[in-house]
């Protein structure tokens, strides 16, 4: 096994444990408990997968991470559906934000690897997609669209802050 595979296995379990054991407990009720701000860090695993990871591998890993989070949250596949949708769309956003000169073989989807501007566009786009799917599947009705959009916005802000903090602490510029 090469170094990249080992680091991704470690990242999988660390992010799963962080999400399930710690971040699950951080939910602040606002407006008499009708709106919750969640912190979702586990999508970072899919965001940081190597660029050359095959789509089927990304989908399988997305589903496994989502099911793992669903086990912690006692939810019936909501996280798995949202993260699998994000994993499916990852290739689209990678091609959409591909640099003019293309990706190099050793490029990593990190601020240090492809730049802060690229990472913000890439991670924000996929995080918004993930959260919209998550809250839509959770609500399971279009009549709650305002609640879905509000939850998506507030959770996006807190989740992106957590993603950026994690990336800057554990993946400093080399």
From TrEMBL:
Sorted keywords for this record are: Membrane, Transmembrane, Transmembrane helix
Highest taxon above the source species: Bacteria
Any stretches that span the bilayer, and where are they?
A: 5-23, 29-49, 79-97, 118-137, 143-171
Q: What is the name attached to this protein's record?
A: Rod shape-determining protein MreD
Tell me which species this is from: Phaeodactylibacter xiamenensis
């Amino acid at each position: 096994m090469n170094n990249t595979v080992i680091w991704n296995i470690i990242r999988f379990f660390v992010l799963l444990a962080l999400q399930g054991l710690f971040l699950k407990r951080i939910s602040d009720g606002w407006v008499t408990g009708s709106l919750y701000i969640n912190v979702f860090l586990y999508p970072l695993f899919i965001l940081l997968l190597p660029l050359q990871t095959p789509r089927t591998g990304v989908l399988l890993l997305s589903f496994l991470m989502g099911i793992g989070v669903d086990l912690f949250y006692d939810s019936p596949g909501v996280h798995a559906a949202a993260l699998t949708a994000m994993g499916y769309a990852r290739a689209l956003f990678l091609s959409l934000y591909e640099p003019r000169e293309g990706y190099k073989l050793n490029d990593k989807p990190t601020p240090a690897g492809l730049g802060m501007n690229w990472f913000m566009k890439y991670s924000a786009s996929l995080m918004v997609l993930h959260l919209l799917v998550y809250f839509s599947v959770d609500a399971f009705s279009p009549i709650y669209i305002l609640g879905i959009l509000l939850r998506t916005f507030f959770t996006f802000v807190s989740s992106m802050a957590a993603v950026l903090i994690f990336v800057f602490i554990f993946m400093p510029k080399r």
